[in-house]
Amino acid sequence: MRPILLAILLVPAVTGEVCAQTAPPASAVASSERLGVLEVAGNSAQTQLGKPVHFEVQRLRVLGDWAFLHARMQGPNGQPISYAGTRYEDASRHGQKSANYDALLQRKQGQWSVQAEAIGATDVPWTDWSHRYGAPSSLFDEGSGN
Hints:
- Helix content is 20%, strand content 34%.
- By secondary structure, the protein is an alpha+beta fold.
- Keywords: Signal.
- Residues 1-20 form the signal peptide.
């Protein structure tokens, strides 16, 4: 099933803009939670890369005060993210980076913060995040929806 791009959500970031493109199902995360999660994750990814990052959300799940985001990073014009000029450039040149972005976020006192993130993972990085950070394991279930 191909994702359909239904909405473009622009979220201001520290040094540019973060854009999330997605096609959420009816059971999707509430838009205010979605905005909060995407803004914090986008700012973190942008800080790590030193350039604007746009997300094509593959999966976003919130359970209580925990959120899991799996997305594809894109450049400003929708092209795959370029690692040129970043600390990941050499790894990318050797096929050790993808366009994937994965993050585990926790809400404390009403504010989301990134507890763990993987930029450009070529394997599943979240296999131990439940155990390591105390997040509910069902947060990472594939069939859990957007």
